[in-house]
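Example 9 (inverse folding). The structure is encoded as follows.
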């Protein structure tokens, strides 16, 4: 049985067990008060979106997302770095559901050469994320990783990060891990008109 069929069968069982309903939680400190998030959602990532962007990767994300929405799922988790956002956006459009009935989670970063942290970079990534989904907003935007090298391992000297934020470029004496993180947060707060809540994911409590 193909991997997609296995996942679809598992999702169907979960939805059936919950009688096609999903518990929800009300988020605090949101830009728009009273935002409700479904407690369960479809996680994507490299296995579904591709990460290695190639012909057909959008369709994998599209098929999985459309299946999930058809079974009653209403929350989907993606990221700028996964390469799955256009497929998810197309699935929502073709599902027949209203945009406000689907809860979209996405992420800026995770740092590094392709998706650097920083004030201007975060604002730009947020705009690109919204455009990738073919929507006007996302419901929850996360910072994928709290430092500008993400979870990846670099051997030898680390390359300069192409960021306009002097606190985020590791090649400059002005680089500051904490300062870069705070600068990225400022962009998240100032740009919150295009999303409804933000929080740090994949980090430890000491970094919050």
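The amino acid assigned to each position is listed next.
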């Amino acid at each position: 049985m193909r991997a997609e069929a296995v996942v679809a069968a598992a999702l169907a069982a979960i939805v059936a067990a919950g009688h096609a309903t999903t518990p929800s939680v009300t988020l605090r400190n949101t830009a728009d008060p009273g935002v409700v998030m479904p407690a369960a959602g479809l996680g994507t990532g490299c296995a579904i979106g591709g990460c290695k962007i190639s012909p057909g990767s959008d369709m994998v994300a599209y098929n999985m997302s459309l299946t999930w929405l058809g079974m009653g799922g209403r929350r989907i988790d993606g990221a700028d770095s996964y390469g799955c956002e256009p497929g998810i956006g197309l699935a929502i459009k073709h599902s027949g559901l209203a945009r406000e009935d689907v809860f979209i989670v996405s992420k800026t970063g995770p740092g590094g050469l392709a998706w650097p942290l920083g004030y201007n970079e975060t604002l730009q990534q947020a705009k690109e994320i919204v455009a990738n989904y073919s929507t006007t907003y996302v419901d929850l935007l996360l910072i994928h990783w709290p430092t500008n090298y993400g979870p990846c391992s670099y051997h030898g000297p680390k390359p300069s990060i192409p960021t306009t934020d002097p606190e985020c470029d590791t090649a400059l004496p002005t680089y500051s891990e904490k300062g870069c993180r705070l600068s990225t947060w400022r962009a998240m707060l100032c740009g919150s008109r295009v999303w409804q809540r933000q929080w740090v994911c994949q980090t430890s409590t000491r970094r919050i």
